Amino acid sequence: MTCREWRIQISSDLDGALSERERREVRLHLDDCESCRGFVRQQQRLTSWLASDEFQLEPPQRLWAEIEARIAPAPGRVLRPPQWIAARPRAGLAAAACLLLAIISGSLFWNSGRIDAEAQRDIAAYEMMPQVPENPFFESLAVEGNPFDDTRSPQ
Question: How many whole angstroms separate alpha carbon 34 and alpha carbon 56?
């Protein structure tokens, strides 16, 4: 493995996401590689700095006032829906219902006949399984009377 690939493993190790075997492999590599040991030191310094009180991002005091000013309507201006919706509210609902129906129909049509790759693999695996021959023992139970067989007529 290259040091670039080891650094991915090292990052996972620092996050606590490796198995014990993988951690041992990382430790063995770190024993031999100064470059990767430097990477570990750098990551540890970065992690401790991010967790420290030095790294506290506070938004400026004026930020929320600027956001409100940008999203608020102009003074005296009232936001209204378009005229065709205001005049006929049911027409707007009907248009939304038609749009929703078109989207659902389109997605059903688009996906009809499609089977995802995982389902195709399952079907192929099932078709490749050997067929189990009929067991004469179970056939004899059905003939002699299976108490769990509710398809036969009561005697």
Answer: 32
